[in-house]
Amino acid sequence: MTLVGTGEIVAPALRSRTGVGAFNVIQLEHAQAIVAGAEAAGAPVVLQISENAVRYHRGLEPIGSAVLAVARAATVPVAVHLDHATRRSLVEEAVELGFGSVMFDASVLPYEENVQATAEVAASCHAAGVWVEAELGEVGGKDGVHAPGARTDPREGAEFISRTGVDALAVAVGTSHAMLTRTATLDLGLIAALRAAVPVPLVLHGSSGVADEALAEAVAHGMTKINIATHLNKAFTAAVRSRLSAEAELVDTRVYLGDGREAVAREVARLLRILTASRPDPAVATPGSSTEGAAGEPL
């Protein structure tokens, strides 16, 4: 049980209609906490480093090498993934470092340009044995770039997979990045329609804004890889703030960062138990939910 490819975690989950937790790393404490939570839950996990986190660390290699080391020491299967990369040079660096997967995000480009750029990246990564995720139908809240009302058209999703050859597809179904409240409303009918049309695992970005019950419903209706970042940062920050408020003279960073690490580990374990629980297949259509207008109209 150690560092594995993302596909080795996602493929079995797709077959069993369970979810895979994919959690974003910023500090080393995040990686340690996420793995500790996965070990407590007895579940595999994906550690993600975003292009924004790379920018914060002023390069991929320091944080990437550290996260890979944490993954190799785990007692459960752990994959390391590059999240929301818009630069091909960063994708190439991740592949060279030993990441098992990348998410190449060309979703802000016009459709044909997105297809062409993504297909080129997918071919290059596949030649190196690296699993590739892409995005279609912009997910709201990402640096003001993505359109909040966008939805992914199932027919376009199927065509996109055929033309690009990517291994997983991030889709827009009602979530938004960086939400501080868990109030997002998912279109479960659209998720089911996407699952029926798209032949690869579906990825839910912006899952921090989705409540526990809705996360379970999303997985039941066909989502597989569930990306969570802001929600864990809230848990980390709350624990640190509580300790510093209680001990005004505290200066030892190990103490309060340790509290944050423990809080994240607990929340990861709790979320993984929700995502990996077995559940019956729902009906393809959900009452009150519609896939009508999925070809570009806000739902």
What do you see in this structure?
- This protein is of the alpha/beta class.
- Helices cover 48% and strands 14% of the residues.
- It has helices at 6-16, 28-41, 51-57, 60-72, 88-97, 111-127, 154-164, 188-197, 212-221, 230-246, 253-275; strands at 20-24, 45-50, 78-85, 101-104, 131-136, 168-171, 202-204, 223-228.
- The protein starts with 5 loop residues before the first helix and ends in a 24-residue tail after the last helix.
- The model is unreliable at 139-147 and 284-299 (pLDDT under 50).
DSSP summary, beta strand count: 8
Q: What's the average pLDDT?
A: 87
Order of helices and strands: HEHEHHEHEHEHEHEHEHH
Q: How are the strands ordered across the major sheet? A: 1-2-3-4-5-6-7-8
The number of helices is: 11
Largest sheet: 8 strands, parallel, barrel
Structural class: alpha/beta
Quote the distance from N terminus to C terminus: 42 Å
Radius of gyration: 18 Å
Instruction: Using the alpha-carbon principal axes, give the shape.
Output: globular
Assembly of the depicted chains: single chain
Helix content: 40-55%
Percent of residues in beta strands?
5-15%
Poorly predicted sequence stretches spanning 5 or more consecutive residues:
139-147, 284-299
